[in-house]
Amino acid sequence: MSEQWSLTVDCARPRELAAFWCLALGYVPAAPPRGFATWEQWQRHHQVPEDEWDDGAFIEDPDGIRPAVSFLKVPEPKTVKNRMHFDIQVGGGRQEPAEVRWPRVQAVVDKLVAAGGTVLRADDALGVPDHVTMADPEGNEFDVL
User: Fold this and answer.
1) What is the pTM of this model?
2) Closest by Cα among 143, 145, 24, 134 to 94
3) CB neighbours of 15 closer than 8 A, spacing ≥ 6?
């Protein structure tokens, strides 16, 4: 039996980064835990100090299939390359012709640049455009392929 899991991203501005990744992944802000109408009610119930209410943000797959992602505020800035990253797989895979796959990739890249992402480089495989390495607004690397 596999374990339920989620991914956590350390960051400086959890809500802003969560909004970017909702757009990038097609996710939505996570609903408050069962039994609570709002996150504020949950935080009050668990006696979370109000000055910590913006220390985290949570997003989830609207279909409830893919893992949730948490964004937690940390004091230190990002200093080195990620060892783990998201691959946003919009092109349909290498079995799709480049003339079909690449416009899909480019459309998502354009959307994410408009939302604050940065293109780091575009890579090719055997001379055919393959994927774009980007950074989110806090510099976390990811690929669109």
Assistant:
1) 0.91
2) 145
3) 54, 57, 71
Phi-psi domain of 40 (left: phi exceeds 0; alpha: psi -120 through 50; beta: other): alpha
Q: 């504020």: which residue's tokens?
A: 40
**Tokens coding 118:** 């940065």
Segment 34-41 long-range contacts (CB within 8 Å, at least 24 positions apart)? none
Token pair in block for residue 85: 């990253």
| Beta bridge partner(s), residue 80 | none
Question: What would the pLDDT profile of 28-48 be if each residue is shown by its tens digit?
Answer: 999 999 999 999 999 999 999
Residue with the two structure tokens 């893992």? 67
The C-alpha angle with vertex 50 and arms to 49 and 54, in degrees rounded to 5, equals 110
Same domain, 69 and 101: no
Tell me whether residue 126 is exposed, middle or buried, using C-beta atoms within 10 angstroms of its C-beta: 0 to 12, 13 to 18, 19 or more: exposed
Q: What is the domain range of residue 124?
A: 86-144
Residue 112 one-letter amino acid: L
The per-residue pLDDT for 2 is 86
pLDDT at 132: 96
Query: What pLDDT score does 75 carry?
Result: 93
Say whether both 69 and 90 belong to one domain: no
> Residue 77 corresponds to which tokens in the numbers above?
């800035």
